[in-house]
Amino acid sequence: MAAIDEAVVLPHDAHPIADYAKYYSQGPDNDIVAVFILPDLLAQKANQVCDRMKDDLARSSRVRCVADGVPLINAGERFWLEDWQKLPWIFDPKCGDISVVFDRDNSQFKEVRCTGKGAPT
């Protein structure tokens, strides 16, 4: 997790990396999937319903924004989730959360983007 934090280049409209709480998990295809999210945004959404990514990472369904068992952590902290589908996807249009997919086999980023915005950056 620390190596990803150090190597990632955030989108130009993102907040500084230190502002985000970072949730990581083992995703499909041996990838590390992470969500970097502003803690205040996550706290606001904790009891609301949001879109959640499905297994193919291309579709979503409506579920609680913060799944049971997912702690609210502070900016700069990291948390590993055993089930990547419990990652707290919010889809904030102001880059309050960032989707990160790291290809462990090739040691490169597949995706780093603000989830509420357009194409990956």
Q: How would you characterize this protein structure?
A:
It is a single chain. With 121 residues, the protein is mainly β. The chain has one domain (2-114). Helix content is 11%, strand content 34%. The chain has two helices and seven strands, in the order αββαβββββ. It has helices at residues 2-7, 39-45, and strands at 21-26, 31-37, 49-53, 60-64, 78-81, 97-103, 108-114. The chain has a five-stranded mixed β-sheet. The protein has a two-stranded antiparallel ribbon with strand order 3-4. It is globular and about 35 Å long.
What is the overall shape? Answer: globular
List the domain count as a whole number.
1
Q: Provide the helix percentage.
A: 10-25%
Number of helices: 2
Amount of beta strand: 25-35%
Would you count the extended β strands for me?
Answer: 7
Assembly type of the shown chains?
single chain
What characterizes the major β-sheet?
A: 5 strands, mixed
Reading side by side through the largest sheet, how are the strands ordered? 5-1-2-6-7
Which ranges are low-confidence, i.e. pLDDT below 50, for 5 or more consecutive residues? Answer: none
Q: Mean pLDDT, rounded to whole units?
A: 86
Order of SSEs: HEEHEEEEE
N-C termini distance: 20 Å
Structural class: mainly beta
Radius of gyration: 13 Å
List the helices and strands and how they pair.
Layout: H1 2-7, E1 21-26, E2 31-37, H2 39-45, E3 49-53, E4 60-64, E5 78-81, E6 97-103, E7 108-114
Short account of what is shown:
The protein has 2 helices and 7 strands; from the N terminus they run H-E-E-H-E-E-E-E-E. The chain is mainly beta and 121 residues long.
